[in-house]
Amino acid sequence: MESINIVVDDNVEAPEQCDQAYEEEQMQYVPRELVGRPGNDSEILYHCYLIALQPDFSCNTMPHDILLATRLEFDAETLDFELDVPRGSLKIRMKYVRHIKLTSEEVLLCQKFQVTLFRLLIDQNQNKLQEALSGSNENIEHAFLDYLLIPSTGSRENPSIDWTCVRSVLYPQETISDKHMDCCSNRVQGRYVHTKNGLICCCKLQNSLVVTPHNGIIYCTTDTLDDLNSNSLLMLRKGGSVTYKAYFAKQHGITLCFDGEPFIKGKHLFMVQNFLLGCRNQKTKVPTNASVELPPEICEVIMSPISIGSVSSFSYAPSIIQRIESLLIAGNLKRMLMADCMLNDMIPTIKVLEAITTKNCRENFHLTSLATIGDSFLKYATSQQLFKTHQNHNNGLLTGERTKIVSNLALCKLGCDKKISGFIRNECFDPKTWRIPGDNSQTYTLREEVLSTRTIVYAREKRMIKIKTVADVIEALIGVFICTTSERAALAFMKWMGFEVDFVYVQYKRPVAANPEKLVDLRFFKSLLNQYSFRDASLLVEALTHGSYVRPESPTSYKRLEFLGDAVLDYLITMHLHNEHPNLSSGLLTDLRSASVNNDCYARTAIRAGLHKHILHGSQDLQRRILAIVENFEQSSQDSTFGWESEPVIKILADIIESLAGAIYVDSGYDKEVVFRSIKPLLEPLVTPETLKLQPVRELEELCAKEQFVMNKAVRYENACLSCSFKLVILLHVSLGVFFFFFLNNCIFHCLLRYDNVSVILSMSAYCLVLHNFGDHIFRAQNASMTRKLLRNSVFDPFNY
């Protein structure tokens, strides 16, 4: 078999209509609450907020509270949230404390403290610290991140700055105080010890950050080990023992000189991680409480005194500030929308944040469900507007007009015109690149952006945002108004965006069928539609009339009503699922909607109700096809497959359900609740989270997201007849290597892979390509016959294939 070369190309995308004028590089906004401007004031006013850290798990090191000081005041009541940490959940509670005035020297001291501690926590390397500190005192001539993160002391009711901890950054420049003479109790021999810094008091080592220069490892010290020194025995893992002095000489080439000095107890420095990630508890290893015994003479003190509880708190701070910044920027967007749309409704800030957060952020929430609701309402509102405005347009023209209005390109243009794109969060938080306030070695520019009379933000460097991402955010914001306030508020937002829609009733004028009662069984449909009785029976005739039925008594086909009913049913079912299951995780509502609103389900509903017997048509071929599909349905399982694994169906059967919904909607005076009461019994049982069957592609995506193995790349063939885009997913990493699965469009395969005691279940249809690379061993399945052979082997070993 001729091999096909595969080249991963970051620039290849699936074909999509693209406006050449759209610039994918879009600004990202920073809330003005966290920004300041340079000045020469001797005293600076800050507003202080207490960040209380409340773990819901037991731990040996309790994190201490932190004070956040900002130049501008903001509403802290909306900023409570939780972080997913390895051992459980860490609750973050914020409250305003008071305003304080700090001298310029105190501000510089606080900045030096946070830059030093954060650089050590993030880099785990003392050598990188000097670069950050050397840039901290440079003259600043532009707007900059201006907030302070300071250790807190005292009660939560009346907290204050822990200046003792802040001044730990001055060590060893600070001279030894006479107070140290009495702080070590009566341990005369342990009062002073030798370190790389010189002779110091033991109390300076009990709560400090130290580095061992021979290996560059940084430790948090917690105590003095009075019963342990260089002559004590170290128990080896493989059995036996050796003195610490002999161990250090052999393992590190270090000669310990001060035999009688007590060792200090230390723990490895905490790792700064992204604690905003979803599903962390399933992937992240719980940190150990193991400690090490350190001879003081090999240690260099970096900061002292600083407790391990304070260090622990600041390891969470980048994630905390990232969430606070996100909530603040969402709050700015909320205030802009409420003012510009002239609304008084209360919208939770967290819902706005959800609407501007994409899946790429990999957090516990994202815009998918809200975008699903917004998309269905936008489609519904636009469809009914077009239906009543263009009463002479056929289904094709109406669909074309709707596509122009609700396309991703159109929504993106509206969103960019209103400068909403800058609010979007589409990147996973990386603590390594987090900007430390006060660290001016990190170059960046903040530019003031006046978005409205009440909304001022700052723009930083641009990032790439796809057209669809902006469109999804617009739909999600519509979904926020629908879920938290009302359709009226959603319409106000849509009008502000530029949509011309309303729900004013307009009489439907069209050629009317003569003697409709002779063409349809009105009693049958009244019973079928939950006792709904048509005021205008000609609408029912129109809903059942196929284009092949050319009769003077029935001049109009069902297509226009199907166009309207499709949108009405979509919105009604989406809102029903949302209201019935209000606490669904992000994305599950979309799956439920996809499984409920599709031709498969509608066609099966039509067959079960016997609607195929009442369709008005004039095609013998259509009649044969209908009878064949009905016979096939009766012979197959009666259980609902919820839209993705049934036999092919005739679209007209599904269209009839939608056209009936459209007819009832018009006949009832645009009352969608009447539509749902009439149609819902036909659709039951509706899908639930318990009965939902995910499509194979979605099932794979969920698995990869859960295991954090997702990586998307566009792929193209070279030197082959077929040219198309692929989706590359790094699915599983085991001891021998990485499994790579390439999916042609949405075609995937179904088999059970077992290797190294790891099992993965996938699903398949049509052609696929699998590449399994273990060093020089490469396996490829490049055609249908090979994939069928793969399917026959439930246990697959690439080396024996």
UniProtKB/TrEMBL annotation:
Quote the PROSITE patterns the UniProt record gives.
PAZ, RNASE_3_2
- Mind telling me which GO cellular component terms the entry cites? cytoplasm; nucleus
A biological process from GO: siRNA processing
List, for all copies, the residue spans of the domain called RNase III.
Answer: 354-486, 532-669
Q: Which domain of life is it from?
A: Eukaryota
| Coiled-coil stretches noted in the UniProt entry, renumbered to this chain | none
Listed transmembrane segments:
726-744
Print the keywords alphabetically: Endonuclease, Hydrolase, Magnesium, Manganese, Membrane, Metal-binding, Nuclease, Nucleotide-binding, Repeat, RNA-binding, Transmembrane, Transmembrane helix
Q: What is this protein called?
A: RNase III domain-containing protein
Source species of the chain: Coffea canephora (Robusta coffee)
